[in-house]
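User: Okay, second chain of the day. Same drill as before: sequence in, structure tokens out.
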Amino acid sequence: LNAAVYAVGKAITSVINDSGAEKTGYKHQQIREAKGQRDTLLSFISTLANELARRERTERNPPSEAYLKIAELSGARKTGEVLRLLRKLKDELHISNQEIQKNEDAARRYKERKRGYPAVAREPRDMNIETPVEEIREYWRGIVGTPQSFTPTSQLIDWARREGRAPYKNKVSVTEEEWKSIFSKIRPWKATGPDGIQGYWWKHLPEAKLKLKKWCELATRNPGEAVPNWLCRGKVVLIPKGKAGPKGPGDFRPIACLNTCYKVLTAMMARKIHQCIESRFPTEQVAMRKGVWGCTHAHILDQTICKDARWRNKELHMLWVDMTKAFDSVSHKAIKWILTKLGSTPLQIKNGIMQGDTLSPLLFCIAIMPISDWIRTHITPYQTAT
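Assistant: Same drill. Structure tokens below.
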């Protein structure tokens, strides 16, 4: 399927490139004509506005020649007629500006696609900076390349005893509306994964989209056979963090470019998992939850508690917890153990919890559910007056 989509995309791109120059020239001609019309409208609007201002000042000076020409063409001589004509021209100017913006955006998008690599990849860089690839590989091997040990503590076992359930028996499906939502969030020209297929082709080739949806359903039922190893791989690009001077292994941010079909699969998995455990999330877990405005919720709560404490003259304490390499250091064994206790069948995650993957925020929230439970049961929260 991937090979077929890649071939179709290449063929379409080749045809478009052959005829693109002619279309681009026509688009630029449209922009020039629209800008000429806009300049004329601006001149007319300015002339009419000046004429109305002259009448408001009740000056005896004669009207300008520019206004007299407009009045002869339009028949607008009375003040009411001039006002109506001015409003009409302003509406036409607004439409003209929108048309110019639309055509300029279309020409810019075509130009960017024609140039190939994103502009950020073509920016001049200091070629004297050496990238210590082997050091970076060893640095990250200790974080994501080595399995993290995990042993359920007595607190975790107690949490599992209270929250654990039997495996979810009901069939969880993804509706057509949910599929539309998944595909609508695919960025069409984002950097590709190892398969080289941009999201645009998965979004706009109907047969490819249908086959991909069927494959995703099959992959959740039989991942061992339906999901090949290459699908879960990504191309890693090292982005300097901007620190001046020599670059150490920790001064580069690894960005993994994943296959779009893999992202669609994990987005579907995230929706299925969310349906099963949505009602079981701790109330304290607000960030990274679908349908919840985490920042707005936190801001309102913070303002309410602070104002209540000032009004009642009460003491407040705040604890900030910052998890170093939070996504990268989550133990796979911990995720599997918690999902099992929540009533899920084992979920094999072979490529880690990657930032930017649709499934990652949900898995991270699941991994810290016992922490939220421990905080709730061991720490007394602030009580407002009402």
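The beta strands are 234-240, 252-258.

User: Thanks, on to the next one.
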